[in-house]
Design a protein that fits this description.
alpha/beta, Rossmann fold, 10 helices, binds adenosine-5'-triphosphate, translocase, phosphate transmembrane transporter activity, ATP-binding, Phosphate ABC transporter ATP-binding protein (PhoT family), ATP hydrolysis activity
Length: 259
């Protein structure tokens, strides 16, 4: 588990609109990388190109290359569904299947991948994934209850369990804590730190303390102006970005001199 992502010269479009321009970066396995930057600079758009979710939007496309270890995920013979299985995603709003049980929520993806998954193996995957997501103890006695019966923070951990149940190589998280209270946020941050032992993790966050707490590397994106594409300004060790960034733009952003 855990692979390296290498992006080179990536341009990201919605129809004729160039949303993100010319991004190149390397994301190391078994590390947490945070994407920060002002609203609309293309963090989520760029994140979605990393598992080919971007192209689900009408007329959306990319130019450039995204390598997952030695495989070009935009290569002609690559199945986007297989890419999304290897590179899982957790969204801003926890989105468990509401009427489906907690158990079935966790196992849904794994069942799709393996139609003949036996009960014993399924039980094992559910327990492992819920333990990995620090949720097992809270739900072990009510696995048959609907996903929607959990609190917001528990639902987000359920979504993380669902994502890890298929044993992806990479986990993409788009503002996973923005709808959560501080206690649930800390629980997810602890979980991210634990999960990085096995996964490559990329997290979009507006919360700079969060980026500083959980990530090893930080990428700062910015817009040159309204209607201009987003660009990667600087990527470095998180500690360096927050104490001694190379770019004035990064410094202004992290010190709150612009929004
Ligand atoms: N489905 C879409 N169709 C067309 N344009 C889009 C679509 N989604 C996003 N955009 C545009 O792409 C640009 C980047 O948006 P994106 O949501 O990626 O930025 P962001 O940095 O994640 O913003 P935020 O921090 O506010 O979530 C914006 O100009 C946005 O309006």
């Amino acid at each position: 588990m855990a692979k390296r992502i290498d992006v080179s010269g990536l341009h990201v479009y919605y129809g004729d609109f160039l949303a993100v321009e010319d991004v190149s970066m390397t994301i190391e396995p078994r590390s947490v990388t945070a994407f920060i930057g002002s609203s609309g600079c293309g963090k989520s758009t760029f994140l979605r190109t990393l598992n080919r979710m971007h192209e689900v939007a009408p007329n959306a496309r990319v130019d450039g290359k995204v390598m997952l270890d030695d495989v070009d995920i935009y290569g002609p013979d690559v199945d986007p569904v297989a890419v999304r299985r290897e590179i899982g995603m957790v969204f801003q709003r926890a989105n468990p299947f509401p009427t489906m049980s907690i158990y079935d929520n966790v196992i849904a993806g794994a069942k799709l991948n393996n139609k003949r998954l036996g009960k014993e193996k399924a039980d094992e995957i559910v327990e492992r994934s819920l333990r990995d997501a620090n949720l097992w103890e809270e739900v072990r006695d009510r696995l048959g209850k609907p996903g929607a019966s959990l609190s917001g923070g528990q639902q987000q951990r359920l979504c993380i369990a669902r994502a890890t149940a298929v044993e992806p190589e990479v986990l993409l998280m788009d503002e996973p804590c923005s709808a959560l209270d501080p206690i649930s946020t800390l629980a997810i941050e602890d979980l991210i730190s634990k999960l990085k032992e096995n996964y490559t993790i990329v997290i979009v966050t507006h919360n700079m303390q969060q980026a500083a707490r959980v990530s090893d590397r930080t990428a700062f994106f910015n817009l040159a102006g309204t209607g201009e594409p987003g660009r990667l300004i600087e990527m470095d060790d998180t500690n360096k970005i927050f104490t001694k960034p190379e770019s004035k733009e990064t410094e202004n952003y992290i010190t709150g001199r612009f929004g």
